């Protein structure tokens, strides 16, 4: 029987679901990019239609990429060369007008990016699964300064905050008392 999640935890699961869906859509569009790219040299291919599809999918990838990067923040681990592949592939005719080695290079770069998209998706799916089980996860808030969003503060975070407060208090004591006076008060000298 599934554990009943708190409202806060359910909100976290919902956000992770949204992120998984966004990453999945990007991956599916990345697959479509390759399908259109690979179909172009086929005998009997409607080259004009493929060029049109290619331009549409490139535009969609460009729009999705920045949004995905902003939303995923620390979880974004997609190969940095991904958008270079999209921007350098001006059209299918120019791609296939190059040498076979250049075409193979684009296909290899596409594959590396595909693997990194899948790795990113796997990371997000894992976090979503752990959140669904009620586990505390760390997630950066989208659209603003990096802020942790988790289902609760862990013991190590609490200890760190206490340590910082103690150090700040001691520093204040040292810097805002006459030289050496704070030590005399503590030691009884």
Instruction: Give the total of domains.
Output: 2
Number of strands: 2
Rg over CA atoms, rounded to whole Å, is 26 Å
How would a textbook summarize the main sheet? Answer: 2 strands, antiparallel
CATH topology label of the largest domain: Four Helix Bundle (Hemerythrin (Met), subunit A)
Using the 3D structure, state the CATH architecture of the largest domain.
Answer: Up-down Bundle
Percentage beta strand: under 5%
The best one-word shape is elongated
Describe this structure in words.
By secondary structure, this protein is mainly alpha-helical. The chain folds into 2 domains: about 130 residues, Up-down Bundle (Four Helix Bundle (Hemerythrin (Met), subunit A)); about 35 residues. It contains 7 helices and 2 strands; from the N terminus they run H-H-H-H-H-E-E-H-H. Strands 1-2 form a two-stranded antiparallel sheet. Strand 1 and strand 2 form a beta hairpin. Helix 1 packs antiparallel against helix 5. The protein is elongated.
Name some characteristics of this structure.
elongated; 2 strands; two-stranded antiparallel ribbon; 189 residues; mainly alpha; Four Helix Bundle (Hemerythrin (Met), subunit A); 7 helices; 2 domains
How does the SSE layout of this entry go?
Layout: H1 7-39, H2 47-72, H3 82-88, H4 92-96, H5 100-132, E1 139-140, E2 148-149, H6 155-175, H7 181-187
Helix pairs in contact: 1-2, 1-5
Question: How would you summarize what this structure contains?
Answer:
This protein has helices at residues 7-39, 47-72, 82-88, 92-96, 100-132, 155-175, 181-187, and strands spanning 139-140, 148-149. The chain has 189 residues and is mainly α. The N and C termini lie far apart (66 Å).
